[in-house]
Structure formats: C-alpha cells, structure tokens
Amino acid sequence: TAAGDGERLRERIADALTASRARTAALTDCVEEPDLTAQHSPLMSPLVWDLAHIGNQEELWLLRNVAGRDPMHPEIDPLYDAFEHPRATRPSLPLLPPAQARSYSAEVRGRVLDLIEKAPLEGNRLLSDGFAFGMIAQHEQQHDETMLITHQLRKGPAVLTAPPPPEAPSTPLPKEILVPAGQFTMGTSTEPWALDNERPAHAVDVAAFHIDTVPVTNAAYIEFIDDGGYDEPRWWTEEGWAHRNHAKLSAPLFWKREAGQWLRRRFGVTEPVPPAEPVVHVSWYEADAYARWAGRRLPTEAEWEKAARHDPATGRSLRYPWGDEDPQPHHANLAQRHLQPAPVGAYPAGVSPLGVHQLIGDVWEWTSSGFHPYPGFSAWPYREYSEVFFGGDYKMLRGGSFAVDPVACRGTFRNWDHPVRRQIFSGFRTARDDRPTSAESV
Ligand code: AVJ
Ligand code: FE
What we know:
The protein is an alpha+beta fold. The protein has helices at about 1-30, 35, 45-65, 100-120, 130-155, 220-225, 240-245, 285-295, 300-310, 440, and strands at about 175-180, 180-185, 200-205, 210, 255-260, 260-265, 270, 365, 395-400, 415, 425, 430-435. The protein is built from ten helices and twelve strands.
C-alpha cells in the first residue's frame, strides 16, 4: 500500500541517518579532546570541524530549507562554510569545542528525526523519495571518510581496529577484459538518491578497449618503482614531473623502505606492504606515469562506467557491477568494515557482467577524465555541490574505497579531487585501445 511504502521509506531514511551518526561517533569518541581539536595535517580540518559542519549542513538543508525553521545559531554558520575557510585555516577559527559540537549536531538530529515523521515525501522535488534526507546521510558519510583520512594522517598509536578483509581465491583471473565497442547508458535518471552530477542518464558511444580485470597491485607498483619509474621523465606529464620534483615523490604516501623491504604505515601500525592488495595513496600523476610505463593509459570515466555497469545480454546499465541489488558484504569491500583494501580477486560475487572485478569498494580509481557536467545537467539542489567545481583542476575518481558507505556508493557515483592529492584512498587500474596488433593488420 502507499501508506506502507511511505512508512518503509521513513524507516529507511531514519536508518541511513542513524548509521551515519553511529559512524561519526565511532570516529570521534575514540580519541581524546586534543586529538579532536588538533590539525593532524594542513590538508585536513580538525575532526571537531567536521563534527559541527555535519550538523550545520543538516540544519541548513533539512531544518531551514525543507522545514522553514529559523537558524539555531546563525553566528556559527560562516565558521562551517567550507567555501569561506580553506581547511588549512580552520584550526585558527573560534570553533565550537567538542562537547558543544556534539550537542549542536545531536540537537539538529533530534529535530530532523521528528521531521521525518511529518514531512510529505511526495509532491515536492526536494523531498520526493526522501532525496533531501538521503543527500544529508550521504554528506555525513562523505565526511566520515574524510575523518578516516584524518585518522590515517594522525601520528601516534593505533586507535581504530577492524578485522582483515577476505583472502583472494587462488584461481587466476585474466589480466584484462575486452569491452566491446558500442553505446551504453551512462549516469542515471531513476536512482532516487543520486546526486546532481550523476544525472541524467544519457547514451555514450565508447570504442572497444581493454581494461585491467583488477586494480593495480602493490607488487605491480613496486616493479614500476624498481624499474626507476619515478626517475624517468618520459613516463610523466610535464606537470606531473614538475610535481614529482617539487614534492620529491618516490613511492606511495605512507611508504618507506627499510632493510630492502617496503613498509607502510596504516592507521598507526607499520607493516610490510602486502603484494596482492591494490596500491593506495597514489596521486593522479603517479597513476598516469605508471600506466604509461606499462604501455597503457588510465580509463576514461565513460570507459570505467561501461566496464562496471553495461550488461551485454540486455543492453541495460546495472546499478552496480553485480546487478541492481544494494551492496551486501560479499559484493564489495565497503563501509569501513575493514581498514584496508582487500587482495585482488577477493570479491568474485561483485564481478561485472563483462568480467571486471572490484570496481566497487577497496580503492577509489583515478580516471583520465576531468570534471564536466553530463548533457542535460542541472544543478540540484545547490550549485556548490558540483557545479562550481566543473572545469577546475580535478580528475574523476570512481568506484569508492573501503571507507565509503553504501549510501554514498553507486555505479554512477562520481568523485573528484586535485591530481596531486594522495592522502585519499586512491588507487587505479589501467586500460588500452583495442587496436589491431601488427600481426592482425597484415
Ligand atoms: C565529493 C568528496 C569531493 O568532500 O569535498 C562534502 C563531498 N561536499 N561536503 C568533498 C562534499 C560537501 C566532496 N567530494
Ligand atoms: Fe561538507
């Protein structure tokens, strides 16, 4: 019944918001006050900024814009406006101390939970299918991933723990998969909580190409390092080489070499680099240089999405590589269930119809594309989520990492960052054109 559907939707909204707050609490209750107010890296905000920013966005979008309520504390709005204060400057702001930040966000949440019961979930574009609530649940989960990045940058003993990811089955996978030429549907017009930049669905013609079956592993990346890849300008773009020199890049972030062995620091623990895991914490420039060294290139965003969603049997694009079912733990390494990517091949149930593995979860995958709107794009509900970033110095990342919650993860989901960034959980896979080989062309 319609009433039953409405009830289920309200429950789903409340569950998504409650899950995001539980994660926020887990990420902020495990450290003492000085660790919440300190800046662990100029790349990041103090955790206490995220804590109140989450509540402030929720107040702005749900209590003020949807429910028409008056601002609760208008004087704090500018402090938590991400456009007004770059991350590096946030520690010098008169931020709410941890106890106040928590109680402010909790007060907003209490009012929002009441609102869910009353809000009409149809007849208004912002509310239909619970979109505005879903947007806020995704926003909080995105900041939870940001806070997890801050934890990774934080020095000192480990405070977070999680069980190891599943092991890879021993059956070998093909090195690459051929994606045949032809149109596919990119983006979505039907996914209820899809953000504006994922819309609308549109046909894209893609030439035939080959794509790695799995993300590039640490073992493969070490070959690039050992072959002098970081010292060979011909593998790098001009900008990439300048950045490599300026930032003195020589290995992924958090790696160090000791007694002939590569070690990495991961959430306060130093351990040998696991060879079968996707490489993580590389910039776009490093990913691009690796691809050239390997005689390949990064996939475009359209190629990535076709490999992930296109079902050649029906011509349809699926919500996820495995089908239309919401992500379950056996499909993909998501939701911070594990604090690292899983070895390649570890999620056979998540394979795409074309045979490509681990597109969702584990590591964000750099693509060769910049951030541009799809044909027919319209900013919704605010220009500052996507539109103001179009055409900027960004590269697109797809698929989501082990730190991404399913609510903020879909085959259509688009993420972006500067090509120098590598504190994010970023890896990549490579591709190549399907050119006839010289043997075939004679
Ligand atoms: C989509 C991950 C690039 O963190 O800057 C959070 C998400 N937007 N608050 C970011 C976002 C506003 C955004 N990314
Ligand atoms: Fe935000």
